[in-house]
Amino acid sequence: MVERFFSKKQVELQLLHQETQSPSDLLTLMSGPPSCGKTSLLIQFAFNVSLEETHFTSRNVIFICNRTKLETKPPFLSQGIDPSSDTFKHIEMKYVEDDEGIKKYFAAFHLHDTFPAAVVIDDFGDFFEERSCQERYGNPRGRELAMVRTLALCHNAIVHANERRPCKLVLSDTHHGDSPRLLFIYKRWVSTIFTIKGDGSGSFVMKSNNNLGNGISKRNRTAKYSIALQYLFLEGIAEDCDQ
Fold it and tell me: Hey, which of 80, 85, 180, 240 has its CA 20 to 30 A from 217?
């Protein structure tokens, strides 16, 4: 599924055949270090979903993020993507300030007449401020509790939407080590986790880690990309087999 985060034209140059969709992956997490282009990848994902042909009436994608952060560090588009393209009209930006904004949106999700093709939440973990969560729950692990409850709410909402049409939830989070600090929380709800690491030469490598929990070997793709001249550039896609 790494292909879905890059321009279709760039992917076609790398692959002669494609298998880009995994219908069972309702919730996906992308985790990487600061300034690795996560927001740019999510925007490209939303753009790709909006382009897909479907017999459902809506191809819209809801993009949830912090407005100030987005305007301070705007995403980079893939080369060849027109910023004025009508496709961007199908991407609805929803700005929230904290986890309460996310919960309010998903608490009313079942009331929608139509559901989006996907919901994207950029920098999910940043919406959970440590001190406010501790005070709210009266617990030193209040942030973890808040994340668990919000993920459960998001999961239930997406499962409900999929009873009527395909709908995916894609989250991003920032980690400062080799893996997400709260990976044990995400694994409870997220079926596929993409981790991003720098390769030491200015490029980044995105790798899929399927949370199948059954020990089955699965063939995955690894994408290498860079941010160059204010563009998101796919350098290559390789296949590997994880145990």
Answer: 180
pLDDT (tens digit per residue) in 180-232: 678 888 988 898 999 999 999 999 999 987 655 544 445 678 999 999 889 99
Q: Are 109 and 160 in contact (CB under 8 A)?
A: yes
Residue 188 near residue 211 (C-beta atoms within 8 A):
no
Q: Which two tokens stand for residue 51?
A: 């382009």
CA atoms within 13 A on the CB side of 142: 14
* The two three-digit tokens of residue 155, written as one number: 């999961």
CB 117 within 8 A of CB 60: yes
List, for residues 53-106, the tens digit of each pLDDT value.
666 667 899 999 999 999 999 999 998 899 999 999 999 999 999 999 999 999
